[in-house]
Design goal:
By secondary structure, the protein is of the alpha+beta class. It contains eleven helices and six strands. The chain has a four-stranded mixed β-sheet with strand order 3-2-1-4, sandwiched between helices. The protein has a two-stranded antiparallel ribbon with strand order 5-6. Helix 4 runs parallel beside helix 10 and helix 7 packs across helix 8. It is extended, with a radius of gyration of 30 Å. The N and C termini lie far apart (87 Å).
């Protein structure tokens, strides 16, 4: 019989240390996180802010977060499900919607810190790279991009949100190599291509292709667009321009108008007070005594 060395012995399993829960769930890249939150010792307890962008199937979440010993603190947040308030009711997870969400967060946090008039950012979206310049009074709000576990490929929607935040007036260290429209061969950013993505030009091109080649698929694929009144693809750019202007006009968060439920649904039994428990016990004892008394009467009748 061939001798086979045990690769994982009992000693290995006794010393095995499980990874952190969020790493096991595939939610947090701790190697990247520790580099994002480590603060210089000579800056003491100064918050180090991160521009966090996350995508789900139906929503985009953008947040400004700082780390503390007790846990992460969220300074401001913006979601793509807020965009219908500004006029964008469909296509809430594409590159153009990511740009709008990043722009909304940037204007919201600057408004909260009373820096929105001082740092307006790049008002007109041209697709060109933009970095905010410091003024004489206050330095721009600085944050570091946190992409999570997403693959940072060229043209990823994360960089659409980054571009929106940059145009909104935030200072985020970056390179233009990952924006949509960057040419690897020419090693430069094509601003026209990037502008097309910001204003949903790639969606317009696909809509026109389907309208010509597969009208039935167009009707089903873009049914929500048609319901919301976007029949002509060419009107999409003007819609995004109006959305950008509306975001800059009023970036403040709006409280939910949804009324709280009148009757709260309970999934466990209500905790009784001492008096209620006492009364319930007396009632149960009385019931047992009466049942026992009835049995005794029946026995006496049988004896007779």
């Amino acid at each position: 019989m061939v001798f086979v060395k045990a690769q994982k012995s009992k000693a290995y399993f006794k010393r095995f240390q499980v990874k952190y829960k969020r790493r096991r769930e595939g939610k947090t890249d701790y190697r990247a996180r520790i580099r994002l939150i480590n603060q210089d010792k000579n800056k003491y307890n100064t918050p180090k802010y991160r521009f966090v962008v996350r995508f789900s199937n139906k929503d985009i979440t953008a947040q400004i977060i700082s780390a503390s010993i007790a846990g992460d603190l969220v300074l401001a947040a913006a979601y793509s499900h807020e965009l219908p308030r500004y006029g964008l009711k469909v296509g809430l997870t594409n590159y153009a919607a990511a740009y709008c969400t990043g722009l909304l967060l940037a204007r919201r946090v600057l408004n909260k810190l009373e820096m929105d008039e001082e740092y307006e950012g790049h008002v007109e979206a041209t697709g060109e790279d933009f970095s905010v310049e410091p003024t004489e009074t206050r330095r721009p709000f600085r944050a570091l991009l946190d992409v999570g576990l997403v693959r940072t490929t060229t043209g990823n929607r994360v960089f659409g949100a980054l571009k929106g935040a940059l145009d909104g007036g935030l200072d985020i260290p970056h390179s233009d190599k990952r924006f949509a429209g960057f040419s690897k061969d020419g090693k430069q950013l094509d601003a026209d291509v990037h502008r097309k993505y910001i204003f949903g030009g790639h969606v317009v091109a696909y809509m026109k292709t389907l309208m010509e080649e597969e009208p039935e698929k167009y009707q089903s694929h873009f049914s929500e667009y048609i319901k919301s009144g976007i029949d002509e693809p060419d009107g999409l750019e003007e819609l995004y321009k109006k959305v950008h202007a509306a975001i800059r006009a009023d970036p403040t968060p709006k409280k939910s108008e949804k009324e709280p439920p009148k009757v709260h649904k309970r999934y466990n039994l209500k905790k009784l007070t001492y008096e209620e428990r006492k009364a319930k016990l007396i009632e149960r004892l009385n019931a047992l005594n009466s049942a026992a008394g009835g049995d005794d009467d029946e026995d006496d009748e049988d004896d007779e």
